[in-house]
Specification:
about 110 residues; mainly beta; two-stranded antiparallel ribbon
């Protein structure tokens, strides 16, 4: 009824973050270091069946775009269920979407 928290993570400032395995609908809140809300998107959904979504911060609004990542996404932060944030280092998917392979780098330093 109230939903389930998908992830809560910490990352450097960015206008776009990838998210892996988002639920069908998700509310996204972006805050700064002091906890001030700088952007929000409520009940974001996308019909396209894709394993990743781009979450764009435009002005104070968050927009969702379900995608197969492409070369423009390499080096972009990606948040996983539970909140771990890494950097997408590579992505490949079959043309028919039946399989994919990816590499994400995680680090404990800034």
């Amino acid at each position: 009824m109230l939903g389930l928290e998908f992830a809560r993570g910490v990352a450097d400032a960015t206008d776009c973050m990838l998210a892996h395995s988002l639920p069908e609908r998700v509310t996204v809140t972006v805050t700064d270091d002091s906890g001030t809300v700088i952007g929000k998107g409520e009940e974001l959904s996308d019909d396209a069946s894709r394993p990743m979504a781009r979450l764009w911060l435009r002005s104070d609004q968050v927009h969702r775009e379900n995608v197969w990542p492409d070369d423009s996404d390499i080096g972009r932060p990606v948040i996983l269920p539970g909140g771990e944030v890494g950097i997408l280092r590579s992505w490949w998917n079959a043309d028919d979407g039946s399989s994919w392979r990816w590499q994400v780098e995680f680090s404990n330093s800034a």
